[in-house]
Write the structure tokens for this entry.
Amino acid sequence: MLENSKLIQDLKGENNRAFGLLYEEHFHSVRNIILKHQGTEADAEDLFRDAMLVFLEKMRKDNFQPNASLKTYIVAICKYIWYKRKKEGDRFVSLETGQLNLKEVEEIIEEERTYLDILQSYLLRITDHCNRLIQDMFFANKSLHQIKTEYGYSTDHSAINQKHKCMEQIRKVKKQEQQTTRSYIKNSKLPLLFLATIFSMGVKAQTPEGSRLSTNADIAFRYGTGLASGSGSYLATFGLGKKRKFHLGGGLRLALASGSDLNFETAPARLTGKPSTIDSVEISSFTTYSMNLFLDAEYEVSKRLNLGFNIDLAGFSWGSRKNGVFISENSRQNITARPTPFNILLVGDNDIGSLNSELFVRFKWKQNISVRGGISYLFTEFQTDKKYSFNNDRFRNKSMGGFVSISFLLPGKK
């Protein structure tokens, strides 16, 4: 088949051979869709012809730059015309410019492109052999004879059998993705429940004065460049020394972080020392959840003011799998990744997973309510589905931002 750029020029010039090539390559896809939706072979023929008129109208625009394959455009336009006819109960919808909503056409094209992107993400998670085979069969449109010759299959049956095995791999990946999504939706309710529990405990809290042990429920909100987060935590500290000015303790922090257009760099310490071994992963948008044990230390400057520091020690993270782009010195390729499941503080770049630390000032607003504000240093880490350069699959974003929180002092013992 001609290259897209050459084919587009031929189509703009109304070259009959170019239209013939489009028909030969893509009519069967349109036909299958129409037959599946209670249409006929004649409907598919009419629809394909009308779609060519719409496509030609789009290409006549001087600024036409395809952001998807020609097949995606044609299938999307056919779907648009077919659904419009069904909706209006008329199989003869006018295709004049005034009657055609090009914005709706673009939306359908984007939906179709997104579906292909999802399929491409599935291909990244099957074996390399099956990835190549599916790409050649369904995207490069190679014939069964070509497949048999290039892959060394002895018979057509062997090639078809291998195709079925590869399709089964994709079905398993899709099923796993659906199960993960259901689990993600279920688990994502935990932060809301946790925050609601902390808030209700804080509202009812009353703590006796002079208690050596103090317990706090805290809700914090943080923002840094490209990354926002919220957290709920439970903290228990002990007052040390005769005057109990120094408080040391720990607790449990449940956090969510949401970001967009962020760059994640090589995480393992063995690779971060040299620029030549640092690659990156770009992820357009994501939300992660983490639950970590943390250490807290505070010094009481006055009756109403504390200086403090806390840092996550260990825990786990979860979130949905995301598509991204792996970028190295010599390559750029699509990848899938999800939050690194386990978090542990090992100092510096030896750390693993998503961890947060805070340097703050605590102001005691009322007897059992205080507010905090300060600087947060947040590590967010993703793990790719397979290893890339230097046998690495972990990539980290480091973000500094400001935060504010409200804390409720809970009942304690003297």
Observations:
- Residues 156-187 form the longest helix (32 residues).
- DSSP finds ten helices and eleven strands in the chain.
